[in-house]
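hey so i finally got around to running the thing on that chain from the lab meeting. sorry it took forever, my laptop kept dying and i had to restart like 3 times. anyway pasting the input first so we r on the same page abt which one it is
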Amino acid sequence: MRATESTTVLLVPKNDFVDLLRKRPELSLRMLGSMSQHLRVIVGLLDDLTLKDMETRLANWLLKQCPRPVSAHPVEIKLDRTKRVLAAEMGTTSETLSRTLAKFRDQKFLRVKGNTIVVMKPLELQKLLQRHLGEL
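ok and heres what got predicted. didnt touch it at all, straight out
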């Protein structure tokens, strides 16, 4: 069951908004910057969903959670969402995500306990990702 949150809907008349942007052009630049950041994220997600198999998507996601540069030391990742939500974000089912996590666990890339994933071998996982992407 989800908790309900109150929401406020704001209607801004187009003409008033355009007038404001004309008077304060820096707002337009800020909006463009914010929109381009969102577009970059969306293009990255689309690339992940359309060009890679599940192992590659999961390895990529795990490595994005690791500090840069990637090291050989284990990294603990606390999931801030359910596995079902994470699976949906990756364009798969929770069952497929669980199978892929189990495969990575069997290969000693990671350990999973509750909502914590420990990437045991970040450098090895990075090499796997590079092989999947044809970079090695």
